[in-house]
Amino acid sequence: MNKPEKIVAEDLSEAVTYPPEAFISREYAEAEPDKLWSKVWQQAGRVEELKAVGDYITYNICHDSILIVRDTPETLKAYHNVCTHRGRRLVGNNTGGGPKTVAQDKGAHSARGSQMKFGCNYHAWTFDLAGDAIYIPDKEDWQGALDNVCTSLTPVQVDTWGGWIWINMDLDAGPLREWLEPVASLIDPFEFEKMRYRFRYWGIFDCNWKVALEAFLEPYHVQGTHPQLIKYGDFYSFSKAFGFHGQTGFDSKAHRDAGTAVETSVHRAAGDGDPRTTIAQMQAEYWETIGASTSETLVKTAQRLPLELPEGTPAGEVHQYWMKIAKEADAARGVTWPDLSDAQVAAAGLALSIFPNVNFIPGPTFSLAYRVRPWGTDPDKCIFEAVALDRFGEGEEPETEWTFVEQDLDKWPYVIAQDISNMVEMQRGYKSRGFKGNLPNPWQERKVTNLHRGLAHFMGTGHLKRID
Ligand code: FES
Ligand SMILES: [Fe+2]
């Protein structure tokens, strides 16, 4: 059921529509845990969060909670976070044997800690890192009826890729790597596993999780949502479906007409002006208004371009020089770049999404990643996360925490706030009786269309229809 599908002949090139049901229907939202979330691989954290044996985190999705632990220096285990005795959630946001319990609320993203056994706060049943019940008070009262099968924690599949932890509640689901392809192979050269969190923001937004995710799936919205960026060039983009997953990249109408998409560097020198100053200004503005999707080194070295290169230097040379000095500056602070060819950077494009709810913008020493989840099964609420990864010199990695940021436009980086400003209005608009269905751009928004094709596959409703 949940194997990636082959791309059918240039599918999604036709104009299609789909209804707003996936965003607003309560029935649809309540069906998601059974039909979708319990069947797909989901990004559930970073390996760096589980360094020592006994370190654990929880990952909550709808009404399920997953407990992920480091059981040996080399391996991780994941379990349903529920006591097998009478069903209390085993690890709350601050439990693990103590009397204090805090309900999951906006102040608590997830639980984390380190312990060699997990004691349930209710009747003190206790489980080891292998998930086995090692202490059951008055076990003899059951007169031998209890065995490991009924008392052990219920396992969940867990694996890693790119330094990310992934879980799948479906024990029959195929391997993670197979699920992630071909996106994993496109991202591998960027060596995400060598990056660490620089910041991790999360918020609870008043919109469906798909609305929040889709705000970041295509640059088609730049002229409407981020008009201040247009001065840096054309954000025309291509969009591709890779099975359930998707990709966008910078493009031009000429390429579209030729049926190919090749102009796909994150760091393309955009605009008609002097590329030295355009790059310098764009980088400074990105740093100030996004704070990610580039690195401090790239921003700083870009400021040197107008000073160190003569006027009239062609854009390609400016770009090449910039990469060279950025690499040198990083080397001087103990940060090595991956061995990335231009072809690999071009092949990765601007951003890659993993079905159903993750989107990565990869860079040579950084990545900006979004993950969005439903809030319980409320169709009108979601948990939104924006995470910046960076490469750091040895011992320079910062300790980060999940930082809650209110759904307040002044609190988020400016560009992300511009995206957020659409979300609540989208959720409202989808409820209008005057809305006739989505009309996604067949070239630039296929990533969005493909999300809905994948959702329809799992949910059995909301199928794409051709506009004839
Ligand atoms: S519910 Fe956990 S010990 Fe009783
Ligand atoms: Fe945006």
From TrEMBL:
UniProt keyword Acyltransferase, yes or no: no
Sequence ranges assigned to domain Rieske in this UniProt record: 41-167
PROSITE patterns, per the entry: RIESKE (PS51296)
CDD domains in UniProt: Rieske_RO_Alpha_N
Required co-factors: Fe cation
SUPFAM superfamilies xrefs: Bet v1-like, ISP domain
A molecular function GO annotation: dioxygenase activity
Domain of life of the source: Bacteria
Keywords carried by this UniProt record: 2Fe-2S, Dioxygenase, Iron, Iron-sulfur, Metal-binding, Oxidoreductase
Annotated protein name in UniProt: Aromatic ring-hydroxylating dioxygenase subunit alpha
Organism: Novosphingobium aquae
